[in-house]
Design goal:
Length: 273
């Protein structure tokens, strides 16, 4: 059956009497809400309007370098080659960016294919932490195998300030499992001035744990932030289910009805159903 377009002073309507997957994508004459006037739920793929109306993954292989925010990361490491950094945003998560730097300056920041994440939106700030191996803080290496002494079970996360060594400022959070394993380690402050061979002491449960630093323990954690513009967030199609008698909460530019059963759909510029 042919679709029907009706226009009045208040709204425009587009009626689709019989659609299914084989009908293909329907491009609406204007951004419209979708109304399901069937007695059963209808499954779609939709293209929201305006673009990025829904939370989205980052655009495929997006170049984030122009989105780099001040203050620019201060890197001690001269060269970094495609270091993958986890990115999160206000709502966004599970994305990565590959950071390349020369002479301590970031020269490339691209999203690797398959690491676009999800739930980002234009205007969101995506942030991550660069591992700066040229720093003099301590950013890795603290675990059960690296310490001398037996940790005591304690499920509560505590903050510890190690003593000893040439540096200062290091603060570590961890807890200890029932099997005396150090776990859930995070470096609240990596500190500065530490050197290979430094022996650090951590007092845990009234006993001393000692940790001798090796080269891979020492470096820095440098924050990096990107302000996401609309072109950096994917304007892709989304799966969407509309219950019987329901109207979509957003306008759409196009949609495809899934399934092999004909469904009638009403598009409207004003949400009045």
């Amino acid at each position: 059956m042919e679709s029907l377009l009706i226009i009045n002073k208040m709204s425009a309507y587009k009626s689709y009497p019989a659609l299914q997957l084989s009908s293909g994508e329907q491009v609406l004459p204007a951004p419209m809400f979708l109304h399901n006037d069937n007695t059963a739920a209808v499954n779609f793929t939709i293209k929201p309007s305006p673009p990025n109306e829904l939370l989205s993954p980052l655009a495929a292989t997006a170049n984030l370098l122009p989105a780099l925010m001040n203050p620019l990361p201060a890197l001690s490491q001269t060269t970094i080659t495609a270091q993958e950094v986890d990115l999160t945003g206000t709502t966004g998560r599970a994305a990565k960016v590959a950071i390349t730097a020369a002479s301590g300056v970031i020269t490339a920041a691209a999203v690797p294919a398959g690491d676009e994440g999800n739930s980002f939106a234009p205007g969101d700030i995506a942030s991550g932490i660069i591992r700066d191996e040229g720093g003099t803080g301590v950013f890795a290496g603290f675990d059960t195998a690296s310490v001398t002494g037996t940790p005591v079970e304690d499920s509560v996360l505590h903050t510890y300030i190690p003593t000893g060594g040439t540096g200062s400022g290091l603060r570590i959070i961890f807890n200890v499992s029932a099997l005396a394993a150090i776990q859930n380690v995070s470096y609240v402050n990596v500190g500065v001035g530490y050197e290979v061979g430094d022996v650090l002491t951590i007092k845990q449960a009234k006993q001393d744990l000692t940790w001798t630093l090796v080269a891979t323990d020492i470096g820095g954690l440098v924050p990096v932030r990107f302000l996401l513009t609309a072109d950096l967030v994917a304007n892709s199609t989304f799966p969407f289910t509309l219950n019987a008698g329901a109207t979509s909460p957003m306008r759409c530019a196009a949609f495809t009805v899934k399934g092999t059963t004909n469904r009638s759909i009403l598009g409207m510029t004003v949400k009045d159903v």
